[in-house]
Amino acid sequence: PDKLSKLLLQHINGTYGAMITGHLRMDTTYIQELQRCTYSSYVFFAGDEALQRMLVDAANGGPAQLCDALSKYCHEAFPKDGGYSLTGSKAQSSPPLPPALDFNCRKCYFDQALDHFDNTDQRSFQQTYWVCDDAWPQSAKMQGSQGNIIVFLGNESPLGTPSQPIVFEQARQLHALVVEVEHRYYGHSQPFPDSLQPDGMLNSSDLYRWLKVEQVMEDTAAVLAAVRRELRVPAAVPAIVIGGSYGGMLATYHRVAKPGVFAAAIAASAPLSFMVGTQQWADTADR
Length: 287
Description:
Distance between the termini: 29 Å
Strand content: 15-25%
Shape: extended
Helix content: 25-40%
Radius of gyration: 25 Å
Largest sheet: 6 strands, mixed
Number of helices: 10
Order of helices and strands: HEEHHHHEEHEHEHEHEH
């Protein structure tokens, strides 16, 4: 970490040092190793120690004090003759809404079958999904001629609030109804919530019998069919399934196994082969 901090500081000073008052000083460096990649997060200050202390004290005093102090700090740390100017913009004062609000997303629950392949098993669980309809045309005629459905697949983790750029950067252009489906056994979509232990794992390995790709694909198709019925989506509107990493693999499987349900698939950063027996495989399997 110390060596990396020095290299970062040298690079920043060499690039920007001539434009600011004094040299930059590295205050905090955090190193995180994830698989083969190393990420560094750091905080640095321009100006003298007194200016730095003023900013830190203001930050400790709360948001109001920090906002007042930032203006003084920037004017002194980045003088006018250094080539910088402190300006505000409408975009900064009114940042864009997050997708969950901008696209009118609502959280829904679907009574999902535990086993899609055993008609004698009538058990079910509550599966979480989201519907975002702000880019969706209002009239059935426009829906049929221009509309699309984007189905985003949850991965081996809780789905969370809709925010994926790969989805929402395309939604308005495609006049798309966005449907995001949480993966069974993750997040709130737990088939056996009463059997969960504090670490999030089930208390019996036998309860994972229904954690299969085939079941997941049927889950997605069932949720999509329910959304189509509820919103009276014209049959001609195509559904595009999207996923990343493992979700990208799932997207491919959905398209191959159910071409009549999913007209296209986007597989972002999808693995092309299994890595059974490696530490990376074991770590992912443990999740």
